[in-house]
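F.,

This is the one I mentioned.
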């Protein structure tokens, strides 16, 4: 990697919060929109379930955010739950998992 690019990546790495921390407000708003539009098409607009299982805080009370993030990234093979890895980083999947665990 050219030195300049390496310095840039390093600076970016320092500027970005640690894994699992807050995302940029813009990105958080985009993810919130995605959860309602894309996830909601199967899980219900209020996440109370449809084709997909309910994703409310109640339904996910006993699930670890890290485990949910992996489901979001890799999907559930053999079901309609698709993998979202092409669209999300691991931090973003974890953000969504925590977001869902706080939904009423
Ligand atoms: C095409 C339909 C579809 C879409 C779109 C979809 N899901 Fe799913 N999802 C499912 C189905 C079906 C299951 C249940 C799989 C099973 O039977 O275990 C599931 C399961 C899950 C689970 C596991 C729930 C549990 O109780 O273990 C999570 C978490 C989840 N989805 C999150 C999401 C998120 C977040 C999105 C959007 C980024 C999303 N899903 C979009 C169909 C979908």
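My design for it:
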């Amino acid at each position: 990697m050219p030195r300049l690019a390496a310095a840039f990546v390093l600076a970016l790495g320092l500027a970005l919060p640690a894994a699992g921390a807050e995302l940029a407000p813009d990105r958080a708003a985009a993810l919130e929109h995605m959860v309602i539009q894309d996830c909601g098409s199967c899980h219900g607009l209020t996440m109370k379930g449809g084709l997909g299982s309910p994703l409310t805080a109640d339904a996910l009370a006993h699930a670890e955010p890290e485990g949910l993030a992996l489901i979001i990234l890799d999907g559930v093979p053999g079901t309609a739950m698709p993998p979202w890895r092409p669209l999300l980083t691991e931090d973003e999947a974890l953000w969504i998992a925590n977001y869902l665990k706080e939904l009423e």
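Residues 22 and 95 are 8 Å apart (CA to CA).

Talk soon.
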